[in-house]
Amino acid sequence: MKNVSLALNGILVLAVAVLYYLHFSSGSKPAGIASESSGIPTDIKIAYINSDTVLKYYDFFKVNIEKLEAKGRKLDQDLQSRAQSLQNDIAAYQRNYGSMTIGQAKAVEEDLGKKRQNLDLYQRSLEQQLMEEQAKVNEELYLKVTDYLKEFAKEKDIQVVLKYSSNSDLLYGGSAIDITQDVIKGLNDQYKLDVAAPKAKPDTTKTKK
What we know:
The protein is mainly α. The protein has helices at 16-25, 51-57, 59-96, 102-156, 180-196; strands at 46-50, 160-164. 61% of the residues lie in helices and 5% in strands. The chain is elongated and about 85 Å long. The two termini are 49 Å apart.
């Protein structure tokens, strides 16, 4: 499930262009005074999260990854079973080929060809199914993290949150602006509430007209 770990890659955008603009446009304006032309404060507060750590300890992600991996193993076993069945049919055809008429051999070959095509289609459908479910988890992960970060940043008066990982543009971040653990705790607390919340049941008391 390596692709799932890429979900956070699109979550936090490194605002280098904004910082570059602010650096060269701030001039002699006092800190905290917004630019008259842009309205952007020149003393923006920045923080970052380690996305790999978030993925490792965020319960929502761990639970859903385990579900996807378990389903992937189950589907793979089913696919292997079907492939073995086809292989057995091919082996039986090869053993009995000498005693078959040309017509019989041709009919068996056509049947084996159809089975192989069906197996290929089935494999592609399984791959598509897993990709769609993985994309759904990615999208939900994106929404949960970004929604939480919006509220967290508003509460802490943070204007920019960066993503730190081995392949990000952020090469170093001091511990003073590392909010990873706080974000993980907040995300997990919210996830526990979501899991514990009773799901709404359809109202069956209404009389059908």
